[in-house]
Design goal:
single chain, 523 residues, alpha/beta, Rossmann fold, Alpha-D-Glucose-1,6-Bisphosphate, Chain A, domain 4, seven-stranded parallel beta sheet, six-stranded antiparallel beta sheet, 15 helices, 35% helix, 20% strand, globular
Length: 523
């Protein structure tokens, strides 16, 4: 079939595409930022179109000529109003699919009884299914509980809670029942419904073979991970709000995203209708085995997609990117940044205020070697200078409700546009010349960390820029307060990136040859 996958840059969508290709389908991927798919192994096998579920015109074009549309977009990003945004997106997709004559919509929602006092998150998941079904296109809605797989939000929350806390106080939701399912089984169901016409127009509940309380889930994880049995103390007065703050501190999930997930844990999410077993008979993965598979993927650095990689790319105001353009001679002329952003040389009265810390370093290593060191920053490698200050900044961000640095990075040596990297996101990547990171920590403004590498006098040159667009008075105060730390961190970071590249290449700025080195192991 000709299949459109919305949410192809997300956790489930990014894994579903290769499964559909293996089954012989023609796949079109819809993405707000198509560049986020450039690094995928299957990129050359699919058609990629730029589309936004909040832009009906782009959806009309994306749906044209396809047989099936997968609705895998979710607006729960830590900001308020996600239910309204999801409702709007579902209505737009429903109408675009109907106008294009699509044969079926497949949607992945959440378990939970409609007559329960559902959390806002689960209630919204069910509402999206109903909105899609209001149109003339048949909808197959699959409902699942927590999905266990390397990089999934549910798995990462479980993993970090149990890894970090040998003793934990929890609210009463640890007694709620849950039926987890392995991500591989979710993908099999999602692809399999296309081959069973009887699944059209149905709401099907999917789950793994076992039902646990959340306390039992944590104990099973501890056993599989080789940890001691955890001490779990139930505290009746611990509210979802307080729980989400604690989860925000000890897991990679930001508090704003953790809160609706924690509220959902108060509901039992188990399969009550097993018709899917007769429509799509298959052997589902036991919970402990799904944990082993996920942990193995993490240890082997073979995590195809992550919850953090599905985050939004930089915000736009009035249709114009706020990303600051570069002005570094030949290299920057080729970057293609938009000229509307503020510039360091803009006069104060122009309204374009930009603070800049720029460092230029010469390096005897070739540009490719230097750039390879640049793309390894963050995560386990660190930032080469005053690492403790970076860690403190991440902790402070967590305390005030930000994402902190616990997201790390998907792979120690590889980056792609859209990847999360600690409290940054990869906004631009053009090997071996340009890496630009946009800050996603809580800030009174917008910040970027940018690296340019080019050939220079037989070696290379690194231009490292920290850019900050302050919002109001507090933005200016924030930048001024950090100036002493920038003077300590940024020169050393640029110098050490250059010296590490020289060490790997076996050269020095004086031209002396030395024994080629190996990369330092991850911390």
């Amino acid at each position: 079939m000709r299949v459109l996958v919305t949410g192809a840059t997300g956790y489930i969508g990014g894994r579903l595409v290769p499964v559909l290709l293996e089954r012989g389908h023609e796949v079109r991927c819809a993405a707000r930022t198509p560049a986020k798919l450039d690094a995928r192994a299957w990129r050359d096998e699919v058609e990629v179109v730029q589309a936004d579920v909040f832009d009906r015109a782009s959806l009309d074009a994306a749906c044209d000529g396809v047989d099936v549309v997968y609705m895998l977009v979710h607006s729960m990003d830590g900001e308020a109003g996600f239910a309204e945004r999801d409702r709007t997106a579902a209505g737009n997709l429903r109408d675009a699919a109907a106008a294009a004559g699509v044969g079926r919509i497949v949607y992945l929602g959440g378990l939970g009884r409609d007559d329960d006092r559902l959390s806002a998150h689960l209630r919204s998941r069910h509402e999206v299914g109903r909105v899609l079904a209001e149109g003339p296109v048949p909808v197959t809605e699959l409902r699942a509980a927590i999905i266990i797989g390397s990089g999934s939000a549910s798995f990462e929350m479980l993993r970090h809670l149990v890894d970090v806390l040998p003793v934990m106080t929890t609210p009463r939701w640890v007694r709620s029942r849950c039926q987890p399912i392995a991500v591989r089984d979710v993908l099999t169901y999602l692809a399999g419904v296309l081959e069973v016409p009887e699944t059209a127009g149905e709401v099907l509940e999917i789950g793994g073979p076992q039902v646990y309380t959340y306390a039992e889930l944590m104990q099973v994880y501890a056993e599989v991970a080789g940890l001691r049995r955890r001490v779990i103390i139930t505290v009746p007065l611990l509210t979802p709000w307080l729980s989400s703050l604690w989860i925000g501190l000890v897991t990679p999930l930001p508090t704003g995203l953790a809160r609706p997930l924690v509220e959902s844990l108060a509901n039992d999410v188990v399969v009550t209708d097993d018709r899917v077993r007769h429509l799509l008979p298959m052997s589902v993965t036991p919970f402990d085995e799904s944990l082993r598979l996920a942990l193995r993927r993490v240890q082997d650095l073979d995590v195809a997609t992550t919850w953090s990689g599905a985050g939004p790319m930089p915000a736009h105001r009035g249709g114009v990117s706020t990303a600051p353009p570069s002005r570094d001679s030949r290299a920057d002329e080729e970057v293609g940044d938009e000229p509307e952003g503020p510039q360091p040389e803009d006069p104060a009265w122009s309204g374009g205020v930009l603070r800049l810390d720029e460092r230029r370093v010469r390096c005897a290593a070739p540009p490719e070697v230097l750039f390879n060191e640049v793309v390894r920053i963050g995560g386990g490698t660190g930032y080469h200078a005053a690492q403790v200050l970076w860690e403190v900044r991440g902790l402070l961000d967590k305390v005030i409700g930000g994402i902190g640095m616990r997201r790390g990075r998907r792979h120690p040596d590889e980056l792609a546009v859209g990847d999360a990297l600690d409290f940054w996101r990869v906004e631009a990547l053009e090997p071996p010349r340009l890496l630009r990171l946009r800050a996603e920590m809580v800030l009174p403004g917008e910040a970027w960390l940018e690296f340019h590498v080019d050939e220079f006098e037989g070696g290379s040159r690194l231009v490292q820029r920290a850019r900050f667009h302050p919002h109001g008075l507090w933005g200016r105060v924030y930048w001024a307060a950090l100036a002493p730390f920038h003077a300590l961190i940024f020169p050393r970071m640029a110098e050490r990136l250059a010296s590490e590249a020289e060490r790997i290449a076996g050269v020095t700025m004086a031209g002396r040859r030395r024994r080629p080195g190996r990369r330092r192991p991850l911390r």
